[in-house]
Amino acid sequence: MPLVGGAQGLRQPVHAEDLAIGAISAALSQAAANQIYSLPGGETLTYREMIGRIFDGMRLPRRTLSIPPVLWRAGFVVAKPLFPSANAAMGIRMMKDMAFDSTPAVRDFGWKPRSFFPVFD
Prior knowledge:
The chain has 5 helices and 4 strands. The protein has 121 residues and is mostly helical. The protein has one domain. A two-stranded parallel sheet has the order 1-4. The protein has a two-stranded antiparallel ribbon with strand order 2-3. The chain is elongated. The protein starts with a strand and ends in a 12-residue tail after the last helix. The model has no long low-confidence stretch (mean pLDDT 95).
């Protein structure tokens, strides 16, 4: 898996079932009426670690390749004729923090997502 710039951007992956449970809990909570919430997963991981856990869940060795951002961008310039809809932004986002505060959801309807340990059957 190619990872741009060390892929140190923070992520909080969340399980779909946790989102469904959260939606039901919010619907039953008066405090959550007409509110908007961030619903992050139960832990904060780097993008690199998140990808590593996906490999773990697939029972595969963690195989990543760190690519400097400049090389990543150059690669997309070269690949553009072959993949016209592709762009470099998805890789550049691996370096950006995308973590959110769940405090209001915890307070208003007991948001309690699980940690990220995916399993693939």
